[in-house]
Amino acid sequence: MPRVFFIPGFGESELVFSKIAPELPGDHTFVDVWSLLGDQPRPTTTVPDFARELIDQYALTPDDLLIGHSMGGWIAYHIKQCVGCPIVQIASWTEADRVAFPLKNLAVVAPLVRAGVVFTPLYKWMTVQLEYKKKPSRSIFEDAFDRLINSPKEAVVNQLRLILTPVKPLKPVVPDLRIHARADTIIKPPKEPFHEVPGDHFTLFTHPETVVAPIRALLAKAEHRQVD
After folding, report:
1. Which of 39, 170, 174, 222 could form a disulfide with 152 if both were Cys (CB 3.0 to 4.6 A apart)?
2. What's the CA gap between 67 and 110, in Å, rounded?
3. Cβ atoms < 10 Å from Cβ of 124
4. Strand partners, 68
């Protein structure tokens, strides 16, 4: 079985994978994006730069499997461009226009974060009322949002920089598995074929069995090829 690396999304921790990881084989590593990016200004760090940092940090090889949720899938996509390892994107993207942020200009968003205008208790309350009030995913959304509220502002900006800084792909690659819910309002469904699941952006937490099944099938297929 391969080493399996779980890369969480914006504001998230390994908690987002807590429902699916126990159901998947392999040697598990949960990437702590918060500590690896840190809370010091990193104005020149883009997602390809961070991908290369992770490659060096974990000595990633083509034999490893990366499972990324949201921003984590975006990071995994850039690792695949360098290493060629298989990746699973859950509620993620390979084209920037799939991200449904209301503001996509980091030069505008970063000062708002530093000034405490966004990712505040009021902002969280408004978002919950509008989008997550009655959804089963409310608890995991609030967990990520509370982390964004309580963390150093520059740490939040560092993560936003990975999402909002325009980058050119090193070479075209295709995720080995895309898993997405059509009702996801944070990341629009891919234009390419994907495995559709119920729920929303946090299906891996609210309907884990629907996410585990296609990943297990991917692993079984890869193992069969190795045997042949």
Report:
1. 39
2. 28
3. 18
4. 7, 89
Q: What does 54-84 look like in DSSP terms, one character per residue?
A: HHHHHT--TT-EEEEETHHHHHHHHHHHHH-
pTM of the full structure: 0.96
Confidence band, pLDDT 50/70/90 cuts, at residue 2: confident
Which tokens is 137 given? 């995913």
Report which DSSP code applies to 14. Answer: G
Tell me the C-alpha distance between 214 and 24, whole Å. Answer: 11
Torsion of Cα atoms, 203 then 171 then 42 then 91, to 10°: -10
Q: Exposed, middle or buried by CB within 10 Å (0-12, 13-18, 19+), for 228?
A: exposed
Question: Please, is 44 exposed, middle or buried when counting C-beta atoms within 10 Å of its C-beta (0-12, 13-18, 19+)?
Answer: exposed
